[in-house]
Amino acid sequence: MTKMAILHGKRLMWRSFSSLSSNPLRVCIVGSGPAGFYTAEKMLKGHQGAEVDIIDRLPTPFGLVRSGVAPDHQETKIVVNQFSRVALNERCSFFGNVSLGSSVALSELREMYHVVVLAYGAESDRVLGVLGEDLSGIYSAREFVWWYNGHPDYSNLAPDLKSTDTAIILGQGNVALDVARILLRPTLELKTTDIANHALTSLAESSIRKVYLVGRRGPVQAACTAKELREVLGIKDLYIHIQEADLLKSPADEEELKNNRIKRRVHELLSKAAATQPSHPRLGQRELHFIFFRRPDSFLRSDNSNGNVTGVRFEKTILQENGDPGKWSAVGTGQFEDLECGLVLKSIGYKSVPVDGLPYDHHKGVVPNHRGRILSDTSTGRIEQGLYVVGWLKRGPTGIIATNLYCAEETVASIFEDLEKGVLTPTTTPKPGREGLVKLLDSRNLRFVPFSGWEKIDLKEKTIGSLRNKTREKITSWEELLKVANK
Ligand SMILES: Cc1cc2nc3c(=O)[nH]c(=O)nc-3n(C[C@H](O)[C@H](O)[C@H](O)COP(=O)(O)OP(=O)(O)OC[C@H]3O[C@@H](n4cnc5c(N)ncnc54)[C@H](O)[C@@H]3O)c2cc1C
Ligand SMILES: NC(=O)c1ccc[n+]([C@@H]2O[C@H](COP(=O)([O-])OP(=O)(O)OC[C@H]3O[C@@H](n4cnc5c(N)ncnc54)[C@H](OP(=O)(O)O)[C@@H]3O)[C@@H](O)[C@H]2O)c1
């Protein structure tokens, strides 16, 4: 008997695997962010004989939906209800506190499962590679975001928000806007969200009044989207500064705007903000300055600053077509300008990290793949049998939550095609799957957190939160998370 399905606009056939219940297709997904959960959902729906285990290095699921999405974007986090329904499917299990690389090796997972899908995101940062990048007072946006979102690895970051009135954010993508908003928004408006308590306290005491949001290219090339820009421009009682000269459009800019509605909207919003602001801020008013055409050259410190950053030296830039028609790069002009500050947040993009035994493109920071099938050799197109990739680890660190849905559809379609073609042979080669994983973890004395353990954390966080009139009060230490989960 054959079943038909339409995946990603493509008609695809695969066998009905209902007869396989005694010999299921064992699938392990590494990472429980949007990419992992959408993949699990598609696998379970499309294959009645699939048994899906999702492992995550944290005791808590949902990846950046929990630890990235800003606390004042609660409506975005509703998607976790859909992911929870997937986790509660009787053919799905969650294994929190299990890390690929340290708890279990990739080769071991591949031995135990017919299909391993890597969905572990991008947990490191791009670096600028300029002088002074390791000074104190400089953080990546990832670190800062993990801190205010209560990620247990960064709850002790304690950025000093009291010794300076000025922060510089490098980059003009949506993460940069999130970070600017959190720094500048009245804390009263964050109080009822799920922001980590330590961050709320620190932001309430913050002396930061002025934030520079600096891009190496122009307003037409800014990486942010209109909704997010409108939000930051709409912060109550905020003085916005944009040099009107930066908003002048070259013929190439006009062409770029003509073909891109989002960019057009972003440019209109910036132009309106530049035109409608008074020429000076009021005394004590918080300020947001958009600076364009500046690329970081080096970080500054003074002799008596205890190794803390005191500013950034920028090189002014112009745009040059980079060989790829319509693509413009920032090129230095040899003119420099210093901006003083006591805090720098580098929001220039996330980066994935490889694990042992995984083909990895260090230049692009992704796992080489063809429609989600991991390639061991890109020149011949040779694939790693049974090994797939999805989400930020597959595409690089861009895209919103929903982008991972289409990405998961593509990867799952490849898995089903491989089943159909006999590249994967679950019927003739049984694998231990879940049972094997539990045994292995047990032999290493590693206690995993099942989904019911996460539900205990969830309940406790919501209960404490409701007492404080917050959506939830996040538990932010490893010790406490594991204690609550294992109760
Ligand atoms: C700061 C920020 C804010 C964002 N805000 C929004 C928003 O408001 N709206 C929106 O639509 N999109 C937003 N996005 C984008 C969205 O979060 C991403 O598109 C999405 O989370 C990427 O999904 P992923 O599953 O590939 O990675 P992730 O969400 O990062 O999930 C990866 C998972 O893998 C786990 N993991 C990592 N290493 C290992 C390992 N070795 N072993 C086991 N598990 C591991 C992690 O713990 C994590 O749970 C935001 C992104 C960022 C960075
Ligand atoms: N609310 C939301 O929907 C939301 C919120 C947060 C994040 N997200 C999504 O998450 C993804 C990641 O966001 P992101 O902001 O981290 O990445 P991003 O959108 O790729 O932005 C990165 C920024 O860093 C700059 N940059 C990169 N390398 C640089 C360098 N060497 N020197 C100076 N500047 C440099 C880029 O400038 P260039 O353009 O010149 O390269 C760009 O301004 C995006 O797709 C975003 O939309 C969505």
Overview in brief:
By secondary structure, the chain is α/β, with parallel strands linked by helices. It has helices at 34-46, 64-67, 79-87, 106-112, 141-148, 174-184, 197-204, 226-233, 251-258, 261-276, 392-395, 403-421, 433-443, 451-467, 478-485; strands at residues 2-7, 10-15, 25-30, 50-55, 92-95, 115-118, 124-125, 138-140, 166-170, 210-214, 238-242, 286-291, 294-300, 311-321, 328-340, 343-346, 350-351, 369-370, 373-377, 382-389. Strands 5-4-3-6-20-19-18 form a seven-stranded mixed sheet, with helices on both faces. A six-stranded parallel sheet has the order 8-16-9-10-12-11.
Q: The biggest beta sheet, please?
A: 7 strands, mixed
Helical content (DSSP H or I, runs of 4+): 25-40%
Q: Helix/strand/pairing class, anyone?
A: alpha/beta
CATH class of the largest domain: Alpha Beta
**Average pLDDT:** 94
CATH architecture of the largest domain: 3-Layer(aba) Sandwich
Distance between the termini: 47 Å
Give Rg in angstroms.
24 Å
CATH superfamily of the largest domain: NAD(P)-binding Rossmann-like Domain
Work out the count of structural domains: 2
- The overall strand count is 20
Strand fraction equals 15-25%
| CATH topology annotation of the largest domain | Rossmann fold
Q: What shape does the CA trace take? A: globular
Low-confidence stretches: 1-20
Our count of helices gives 15
Q: Which kinds of small molecule does this entry bind, naming each only once?
A: flavin-adenine dinucleotide, NADP nicotinamide-adenine-dinucleotide phosphate
Strand order of the largest sheet: 5-4-3-6-20-19-18
